[in-house]
Amino acid sequence: MTGSFTEDLTRSLSVSPSLDLHDDLHGSAADPAVGSLSFLNEVMGRYPGAISFAPGAPHTSFYEDLDLTRCIDVCLGDLARRRGLDRKAAERLLFEYGPSRGIINGIVAEALDRDYRLGADPADVVITVGCQEAMFLTLRALFRGGGDTLAVVNPSFVGILGAARLLDIDVVPVSEGTTGIDLAQLQRLCDEARAERRRIRALYVAPDFANPSGTRMALETRRGLLELAHREGLVLLEDTAYGFTAEPGDGLPPLGAMDTAGSVVTLGTFAKVCLPGARVGYAVAGQRVTGRATGGTRRLADVLAEMKTMVTVNTSPIAQAVVGGLLLEHGGSIVRAGRAKAELYRRNLRLLTEALDRQVAGRVPQVTWNRPDGGFFVRLRLPVAVDMELLTYSAAEHGVLWTPMSTFYLDGSGDRELRLACSYLDPADIDEGVRRLADFLAVVAR
Ligand SMILES: Cc1ncc(COP(=O)(O)O)c(C=O)c1O
């Protein structure tokens, strides 16, 4: 001790250790995929007057008549009935930690069956803190390390890339065309891995209006992928986030509903259909897991629920009740809960592509884009490199924000693409935003 106790204490508290981002922290701390969302939020915060095509966030008009108390009340009634509880006992479920697998599993399993004929048992379902946790837990459970690789459709949602990075899982890209994943390439990757005594353990794919590509997998490709997965012992991690945006009558069955071999783990979110602030998602994992020690059989969902006790313990029962009540108010259906929203998103997609046709096509013909039938996103191809520096220029000089696509790609191939999200904006903003975008493109894309 060199001074008085208080002086020493003050000195020791004011000295913070210096850590090197690369030498002292896990590799994911310096990973561009992991940091991309924070960086985008930071840029958006710096230019509050800019029109933002960046966030894939739901339109805020849907929160206006959302009565959270009523949703909770409806869900409590259902929980009491299902469990034979009186009202007070049902209410207590919301005050306590509760089971890690969730309390609205029955409502969710029935909704998935009603909407998609998924045929899931409530015991196959784990209610998670968003789809992000469902991805994280599933990856953690499936990947032992030592040569196990995750294949992802290139480009892919940054959440799966970041989760894999946090877990030190090797990731390999698989290309996609207009009808979905390149099955021949996936087969080649499986063959190569086997020859090197490794294995492609799982494939992450979003068959319906993927983020960020907007691609929808054709029925034939879905069949081919399930056959390949069965043959190769590959687990398919199916992200269903944007399936609800399909035109009524134009729905294709999710992989999980076509699966007869137990190859698919279905991952879902209520962020887009209900509200992101609830942070509720799910995994459906009915696969049987045999234990060598006990000789018993459990479901993969049981393993995920157990692991969850070491991550988030359980998903807020209050948030679950909001989502459960919202589904019940729409006949216990995800599709019905999302119908009005899906209409608005399809309208916005149409307005966005029409505005691009009107304002960009003739003026900057070097720039091209896709025309998805659903989802939240349109992808633009430019003749120049697209990076964070260009985004900052676009925000500062032209008042318009978007997302560079490079963070969604594993192999750098998207470095001339940007993503436009239309979900959050009103028609006038879409129009004005595209006018600004056209001015920006006219300067940079010549
Ligand atoms: C394809 C996809 N999956 C999952 C998520 C995240 O879901 P959650 O907010 O429930 O974690 C998103 C969010 O944008 C997404 O686009």
UniProtKB/TrEMBL annotation:
This is PLP-dependent aminotransferase family protein. Pfam families: Aminotran_1_2. It comes from the Bacteria. The keyword Transferase applies. One of its GO terms (molecular function) is transaminase activity. InterPro entries: Aminotransferase_I/II_large, Class-I_PLP-dep_aminotransf, PyrdxlP-dep_Trfase, PyrdxlP-dep_Trfase_major, PyrdxlP-dep_Trfase_small. CDD domains: AAT_like (cd00609). The keyword Transferase applies. Its cofactor is pyridoxal 5'-phosphate. It comes from Kitasatospora purpeofusca. PANTHER family: AMINOTRANSFERASE, KYNURENINE_ALPHA-AMINOADIPATE AMINOTRANSFERASE, MITOCHONDRIAL. Residues 108-437 form the Aminotransferase class I/classII large domain. Keywords: Aminotransferase, Pyridoxal phosphate, Transferase.
